[in-house]
Description:
- This protein has helices at 6-15, 21-30, 43-59, 81-91, 115-123, 138-153, and strands spanning 104-109, 128-134, 164-165.
- The protein is mostly helical.
- Strands 1-2-3 form a 3-stranded parallel β-sheet, covered by helices on one side.
- Helix 3 runs antiparallel to helix 5 and helix 4 packs across helix 5.
Amino acid sequence: MRSIPILAIISYFITCQAQPHRFADFAASTITSLADIPPHAGPDVQDAWRQIDDLIATYWSSGDGFDGNEGKEYTYGEVTGVGARQLAAEMGISSAKAKGREGIIFYDLGSGVARLVVQMVLDNPVAISKSVGVELSKERHDVASSALSRMRSSEYKSDLLSKVEL
């Protein structure tokens, strides 16, 4: 995915106001929505984000949490990796904005399979001292616990995972 700074998109949109269809053509060809634009970050941080995304994809499948219980369908959705980074940036806890913000406890109520809970710690190790996921669905909690357990016992073995509670 090619990332485009939001200022570039806004600037492009302003210059194309006389021909608004051009912005739509531009946006459709490069991104699916503004929600797909990650916060501004340098190449080192973007590389770290790619590694974290790959790590999370190793322990959670894209369909985790969407299965019903005994045939019942649940309404369920996950925050994307980019969405988690946007959330952290807006909350002022992203690693780029974390100076003086250490010791934050992140709570995710309705944490599903806990991807967001784990990603917040991995993406923001300076600011986040603990990341807590609370999920009422036993099935989703079990998926989260299993993935986290596998991750903790893998070669990854980061001390950061000790900050995660489910």
